[in-house]
Q: What sequence folds into this?
């Protein structure tokens, strides 16, 4: 760094990787000096003047209750404070705050270079206001969508004259509203259960958590009370022009078994003829560019990555300057993005060489765009940079997906042909279906990710003879609606307008962490049901999607400067007051219901599987107060029906594994010992694997 | 009154959750009878075995079967 008296520009960034990129882009030589202050890294770059680029690590400030007891509600007074003063696990934040404070003393210019969205703007604002001692009004704002050198240089040379206060106000309001809902309702739930049982368990809900759990519970109720109805399907194999193809019966669903049997008897082995052939050509438009939601859904359906994982991978690719900012809701690629330059750059990679060349041969490049817009960022697109170091498999996959999608949006329409051949066999109608691609169009670019199988039929003419070689009756049942998965729940949240592109994945994770839902195909637990039941009775507004949609609308109005933050906060307080009073009045009933639910959930967590001896009891992990030892025992022991028990390791943690032993089929437990990898244990003393091992020894 | 299946507060014989499952069972019986000619007992046995039956509906079917037996 320069002499102690020299002044410099302090650039606030969101993360260390971003700080490094920005410093490298702005330094004349591309080699900024790395320094450390209290183990916080920062970079000094030389340009027209000295630039000190300091990173945060996400939010350094949070909201806390201004004064009063912890175990009390309602609370409506709050303040922003450094996270290390509010959260037990955020002690390290102190160093970051102190570093900003120290480095701000000798700075005479301040620039926020955090991500250009609500969260990024708020991170920069809090640091400038609190850590840099009120520099939020004089600071400038760098606006960029990629971490490419050229874009960063432009953003530095032509910054916005001041911070984006409308975005900041919207961000502050969102955090404050969420805090008001979250703290009051979570305290109400937790304290009700605590006062009834004397035991402490964390229960939470919030403005977005509530409605999300509500619609998950609604679907779960339908699934759990579902009663299937039988129906029958007829499948046939047709022999035509020396080929055998699958034929389907005219009716997809036959209501009675007798009727299905009549069709089978009438058609099996019989010869019929082709009565009609319908061909249809379908033009399929190219896909639209990725916004964060569609990227997350596509990655889940193709690779099984959860939305949270996809976002984390995309964030790493963004920090490596390989893609544009991923937390965008835009489906548009404005022409300011130099498509040709990006494609020319991608051409350097062998896998994309031919495809990029093909697009570059076009006279004009016009992307197909979706309807959604985002004022801050365009849709996700590759920057054209190639990886400087080999990417890991997940990064490689997501980058390839983004690159191919980017190319596909410039592709021409694909042309597909579908063929429906109508057969008449003994007075019954059957169909043969074929489909093929006539012109690849955009599919050429997106091929590995297109799921369209071709079904080729022989050349069939009207009056051709067809023999139904085999006719089969298939017994079927109506199915319950499918469970939400991490991809479809995201789509539903987007459709209902609850949460934001940046917070949805996090909310889903919280539902898992609280034990309200489990499994990849989301199952609502009993605890989840009881929490939603209590909220539905005593604070119904919190579970309604309308309330959160309304608030999202208000947040947008704040962003557009047409509504004041204070007005929204006052409204929220007025909404919450009567609900919390009702909660207080019924605290005892709520506490009892929640305590029972928690106990049921805890008991459920200890069930290993069915008892192999009595067949009706559940094998459960039991802690004996008398011997202070743990073992597996049958739940029927307490009814005096079964005395089955098995010993367990006394050290480490033991939990049901949710799997069965491959050798004997008994349920297994998972054992964790400090410093060792967890292992699955079969507690069957007569397990053939154990016997084998004993023999070997 | 407690639900005869799970012990939660009951609306009538069953709690809110199992009551809905019970109603579905009664409602769908006519479809089953028309399609396969099963008796009430056979129908309940089928439901207990069927992979698509929801767990609350299965519990109610089991409870109804135990009442018959």
A:
């Amino acid at each position: 760094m320069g002499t102690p008296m020299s002044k410099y520009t302090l650039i606030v960034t969101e993360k260390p990787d971003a700080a490094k990129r920005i410093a490298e882009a702005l330094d004349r030589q591309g080699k900024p000096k790395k320094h450390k202050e209290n183990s916080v890294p920062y970079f000094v770059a030389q340009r027209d003047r000295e630039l000190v680029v300091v990173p945060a690590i996400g939010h350094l400030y949070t909201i806390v209750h201004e004064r009063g007891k912890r175990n009390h509600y309602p609370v409506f007074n709050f303040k922003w404070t450094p996270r290390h003063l509010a959260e037990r696990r955020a002690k390290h934040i102190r160093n970051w705050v102190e570093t900003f404070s120290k480095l701000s003393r000798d700075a005479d210019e301040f620039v926020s270079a955090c991500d250009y969205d609500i969260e990024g703007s708020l991170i920069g604002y809090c640091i400038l206001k609190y850590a840099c001692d009120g520099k939020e009004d004089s600071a400038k704002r760098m606006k960029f969508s990629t971490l490419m050198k050229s874009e960063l240089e432009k953003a530095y040379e032509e910054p916005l004259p001041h911070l984006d206060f409308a975005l900041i106000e919207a961000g502050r309001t969102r955090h404050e509203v969420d805090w008001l809902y979250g703290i009051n309702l979570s305290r109400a739930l937790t304290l009700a259960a605590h006062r009834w049982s004397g035991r402490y368990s964390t229960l939470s809900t919030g403005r977005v958590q509530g409605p999300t759990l509500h619609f998950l519970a609604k679907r779960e109720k339908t699934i759990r009370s579902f009663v299937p109805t039988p129906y029958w399907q007829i499948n046939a194999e047709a022999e035509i022009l020396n080929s055998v193809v699958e034929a389907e019966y005219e009716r997809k669903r036959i209501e009675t078994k007798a009727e299905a049997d009549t069709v089978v008897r009438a058609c099996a082995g019989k010869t019929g003829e082709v009565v009609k052939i319908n061909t249809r050509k379908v033009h399929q438009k190219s896909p639209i560019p990725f916004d964060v939601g569609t990227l997350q859904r596509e990655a889940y359906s193709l690779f099984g990555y959860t939305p949270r994982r996809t976002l984390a991978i995309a964030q790493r690719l963004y920090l490596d300057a390989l893609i544009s900012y991923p937390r965008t809701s835009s489906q548009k690629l404005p022409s300011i993005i130099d498509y040709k330059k990006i494609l020319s750059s991608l051409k350097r990679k062998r896998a994309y060489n031919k495809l990029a060349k093909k697009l570059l041969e076009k006279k004009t490049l016009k992307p197909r765009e979706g309807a959604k817009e985002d004022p801050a960022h365009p849709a996700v697109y590759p920057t054209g940079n190639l990886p400087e170091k080999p990417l890991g498999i997940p990064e490689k996959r997501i980058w390839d997906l983004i690159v191919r999608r980017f190319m596909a949006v410039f592709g021409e329409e694909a042309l597909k042909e579908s063929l429906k051949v109508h057969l008449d066999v003994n007075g019954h109608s059957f169909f043969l279906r074929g489909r093929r691609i006539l012109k690849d169009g955009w599919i050429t670019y997106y091929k590995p990710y297109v799921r369209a199988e071709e079904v080729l039929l022989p050349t069939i003419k009207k009056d051709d003879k067809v023999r139904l070689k085999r006719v089969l009756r298939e017994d079927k049942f109506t199915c319950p609606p499918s469970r939400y998965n991490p991809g479809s729940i995201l789509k539903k949240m987007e459709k209902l307008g609850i949460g934001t592109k940046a917070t949805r994945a996090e909310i889903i994770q919280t539902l898992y962490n609280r034990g309200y839902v489990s499994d990849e195909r989301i199952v609502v637990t009993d605890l989840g049901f009881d929490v939603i039941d209590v909220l539905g009775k005593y604070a119904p507004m919190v579970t309604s999607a309308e309330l959160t949609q309304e608030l999202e609308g208000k947040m947008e109005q704040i962003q557009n400067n047409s509504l004041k933050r204070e007005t929204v906060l006052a409204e929220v307080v007025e909404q919450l007051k009567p609900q919390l009073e009702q909660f207080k009045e019924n605290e005892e009933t709520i506490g009892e219901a929640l305590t029972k639910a928690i106990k049921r959930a805890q008991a459920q967590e200890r069930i290993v599987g069915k008892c192999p001896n009595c067949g009706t009891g559940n094998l459960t992990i039991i802690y004996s107060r008398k011997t202070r030892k743990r073992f597996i025992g049958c739940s029927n022991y307490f009814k005096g029906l079964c005395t089955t028990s098995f010993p367990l390791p006394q050290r480490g943690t033991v939990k049901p594994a949710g799997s069965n032993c491959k050798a004997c089929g008994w349920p297994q437990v998972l054992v964790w010992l400090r410093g060792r990898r967890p292992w699955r244990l079969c507690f069957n003393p007569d397990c053939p694997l154990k016997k084998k091992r004993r023999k070997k020894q | 009154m407690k639900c005869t299946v799970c012990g939660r507060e009951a609306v009538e014989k069953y709690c809110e959750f199992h009551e809905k499952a019970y109603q579905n069972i009664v409602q769908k019986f006519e479809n089953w009878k028309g399609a396969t000619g099963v008796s009430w007992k056979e129908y309940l046995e089928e439901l207990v075995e069927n992979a698509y039956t929801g767990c609350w509906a299965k519990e109610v079917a089991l409870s109804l079967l135990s009442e018959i037996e």
About this structure: Residues 441 and 459 of chain A are 25 Å apart (CA to CA). Confidence is low (pLDDT under 50) at residues 1-5 of chain A. Residues 8-163 of chain A form a domain with the Rossmann fold fold (CATH 3.40.50.140).
